[in-house]
Specification:
This protein is mostly helical and 157 residues long. The protein is 79% helix and 0% strand. The radius of gyration is 20 Å and the shape is flat.
């Protein structure tokens, strides 16, 4: 087994690296000028939504590996969307109002996801449709651009 000193040393390394990552994360948020209440709200909603999704997966005896591969990874990747917009807004200041909208849409979408998971668990119906706000918004934006900016939607152009 592990000696006490070896376990303490590993725990200290993990704590040191974790605190370093948190410091870098909050420095990036400060640099980008993102309000911290939005970040706290987003992280809290993601936590509740992830926990509800895990409960739904366990209750309906779905694949835990599928939950981890799809839900957790997609939530993690969707966290990057507002930060990418915030980085773009750093160099193009008129885009700064999009940062708040990205956070708001992401928070709203996760609240809907959380409510759908709760409704699935309550009604024992795992086939309740899920509304994806980002894909809906992107398809509407694409249709707007194609309609008003005379862009061809053909591949290869």
């Amino acid at each position: 087994m592990f000696g006490s000193n070896e376990v303490d040393e590993r725990a200290n390394i993990i704590l040191f690296l974790g605190s370093g990552l948190l410091t870098i994360f909050w420095q990036i948020i400060t640099y980008l000028g993102i309000p911290t209440p939005e970040v706290y709200a987003l992280l809290a909603i993601f936590t509740f939504s992830g926990f509800a999704g895990l409960l739904k997966t366990i209750i309906f005896k779905e694949s835990l590996k599928g939950f981890i591969c799809f839900d957790i990874v997609s939530k993690g990747l969707s966290l990057f969307i507002p930060f990418i917009v915030a980085f773009a807004a750093k160099s193009i200041p008129p885009l700064s109002f999009f940062v708040d909208y990205c956070f708001s849409f992401l928070i709203l979408g996760e609240i809907f996801t959380f409510l759908i998971y709760i409704q699935c668990i309550k009604t024992r119906n795992k086939d309740i449709n899920h509304i994806d706000i980002y894909n809906l918004g992107l398809s509407n934006l694409k249709a707007f651009i194609i309609k008003y900016l005379k862009v061809n939607d053909k591949k290869g152009d």
